[in-house]
Amino acid sequence: MKWTEFAGWGRRVADWAQDYHLTVGDRPVRAQTRPGAVLNALPATPPETPEDMEQVFRDFEDIVMPGITHWQHPRFFAYFASNAAAPSVLAEFLVAAIAPQCMLWQTSPAATEMETRMMDWLRQALGLPDGFAGVIQDSASTATLAAVLTMRERALNWQGNIAGLPGQNPLRIYATSEVHTSIDRAIWISGIGQQNLVRIPIKGDWRGMDPEALEAAIKSDLAAGLTPAGLILCVGGTGVGATDPIAACLAVAKKYDLYTHVDAAWSGSAMICPEFRHYWAGIEDADSIVFNPHKWLGAQFDCSAHFLKNPDDLVKTLAISPEYLKTHGAEGIINYSEWSVPLGRRFRALKLWFLIRAYGLEGLRERLRNHVKWSVQLHDKLATHPQIEIVTKPMWSLFSFRYAPEGTADLDDLNIRLVNAINDDGRIYLTQTRVDGRIAIRFQAGQFETTEEDVMMTYDVITEIAGTLG
Ligand SMILES: *Cc1c(COP(=O)(O)O)cnc(C)c1O
To answer: Residues bearing N6-(pyridoxal phosphate)lysine (predicted)?
Structure first.
């Protein structure tokens, strides 16, 4: 394709994208395609000669689109939302066009400095105190990996990268069973080992860590000659929004000099609303915090905000400065690749700049507040249904329930069948989780174009389809 043809196609794509977003609500939310259908529709061998873009675009519509699950659908209530708000999509289009690599200051000064500024805007938006610095990572998983590597190096007096782990005293990391699987993987990849991820019991309605049990576990590890290295807390766990008591757990961690990381990947966005900040009271004492603007806040994937009280610990863990990467002659600059595992980095700050300016914090807060309000309304209505049992109460806009008609032998099986039937129907999309070993159906509202009507019709769809199951 010649660049002289690009603008025409760009307009076609922009028109298509606008139309898609305006009509996506008419499509079934979850893809209704069979496994292998898309693979079989794609030629087994690549073309030897150029093909017509018209045909490529037609095939995109005919082959790809039927196999898409619509995350931008207003009735996407599964997992967590992954919003691509219009201004952030435009910013991504521009980034795709200029395609800079943002590993060093000099490889893209504007991207680096905008990243610094946007992370500080987000810090203020979340009500975090002055002094937290930030970096945009590709995902919360990567931010957590970086934090766990920092825990490891700090506990080994910065010798792990050099000497490796053989012969070292086992390092111990503490978390509950409610944390995301990205924590387990960070523990594996860092070489710390699953058996050194110590699961602390939970208590209370928020399913949060018991700080006394945490202290007991640390003491017992010390007595056994092991090395407590880090604490990982969650605010808004993926299953049902589990939230650890931050202040009490951080106080224990401080007493034993542990490095602390807080995973608020989903719920962190809600902290732009002061009324939700009580959920993470004490957060200012954390060493590392991650949240995903690419979930609820509206920034197109990928965009994960990683705040650090003292970035030196992270940079000491991850920075490699070979000669060819040195930036000569510029003092006081940041090379963000020293703050993250990958070297190459996309220009992710631009979409935050577009997004925050286009909506203002007030516009973003209004959306999140509505999601929470409507979700609570739906919860209240479902709670009155005689055959529906609320399993976990709303944490922000997330709650879980199960269909429990009297005398059903296997409720897990019935609820799996219900979720599948709902998703085959296509008007809404829900997913299940396990709570205390038993299946529960999750509901979360968070898609940017969701309306109160979209949320409340969920009641009708659930009860109608539940009624058809034997
Ligand atoms: C989504 C989520 C993650 C993983 O986020 P990625 O950016 O996909 O790595 C981690 N923790 C929690 C609590 C999440 O909700």
So the answer is: 295
